[in-house]
Design goal:
Blueprint lengths: L6 E5 L4 H12 L3 E6 L2 H13 L3 E6 L5 H15 L4 E4 L14 H11 L1 H17 L2 E5 L12 H21 L5 E7 L5 H8 L4 H9 L10 H12 L10 E4 L11
């Protein structure tokens, strides 16, 4: 029960890695606020948690909207009186080159992937300071290693690594830890969207698995368990870190 009696807010928790983070946090003893713009997905996550004797509530949130984020903060503090950990997971992926992506698509992706972390961190920080809490944000190996047809997405994931370091430096003396996770291909929504954008989605999925030293893509819970670790006291001397959870994606080219 690494997170017993902790209050954890997870954005983008209506599916994929976010849902897994919410489920694993609840299993570790936390009371979880499941935040997502997809209300049905968020409610399904809450049902999964509550059916396993966990404690979770839902709040519909657009992380790119300052007022929506302020409402999420107000709801969390009114309901639970505090927050111990913020897991920034909400993201979208536009599979286009820099030439093909529209101005609107670029701004939307920036607004959610980076702006959402900015807004949630900004407005939760006063309360995280009170609890000596922490922030865990979801970056990607694409913050280090770029791939075709996702220039904007790769840009946002690199920005998250920089923002994580900046917040860690600014708020470490206040007792707030800030880290991010860089997953490889994970069997979740964004990766599936990337596969579907390729000429042969089935082959793209197989090829993606072979990019990893373990010759497979990861599972959402394999990332979520790292998020729980970072949010717990077990990681008390870790801040400003980018934890790579990539099955060896960044280790080099595996044998063919």
């Amino acid at each position: 029960m690494k997170l017993k009696n902790r209050i954890v807010v997870v954005t983008g928790a209506g599916s994929g890695i976010g849902r897994a983070c919410a489920i694993e946090s609840a299993a570790a003893g936390a009371k979880v606020v499941v935040a997502d713009i997809n209300l049905q997905g968020a409610e399904d996550t809450v049902k999964l948690i509550n059916s396993n004797n966990g404690i979770a509530t839902v709040f519909k949130t657009d992380v790119a909207d300052p007022e929506s984020v302020k409402q999420l903060v107000a709801y969390t503090i009114k309901t639970y009186l505090k927050i111990d950990a913020l897991i920034n997971n909400a993201a979208i992926q536009v599979n286009k080159t820099i030439e093909d992506i529209t101005f609107e698509e670029w701004n939307l992706q920036m607004g959610i992937n980076v702006g959402g972390i900015f807004l949630c961190s900004k407005y939760f920080l006063p309360y995280l300071r009170q609890t000596k809490g922490n922030i865990v944000s979801m970056s990607s190996v694409n913050g280090y290693f770029v791939e075709p047809m996702c220039a904007g997405y790769c840009t946002t994931k690199a920005a998250i690594i920089g923002l994580t370091k900046a917040m860690a430096i600014d708020h470490g003396h206040e007792g707030v830890r800030v880290n991010c996770i860089c997953p490889g291909y994970i069997d979740a929504g964004l990766a599936e969207g990337y596969f579907q954008a390729q000429p042969d989605p089935a082959q793209a999925r197989i090829d993606a698995g072979k990019l990893h030293a373990l010759w497979r893509i990861g599972k959402p819970e394999e990332v979520a368990r790292v998020a729980v670790f970072l949010a717990s006291d077990d990681a008390s001397f870790i801040t400003g870190a980018s934890i790579v959870v990539d099955g060896g994606f960044g280790s080099g080219l595996p044998p063919k």
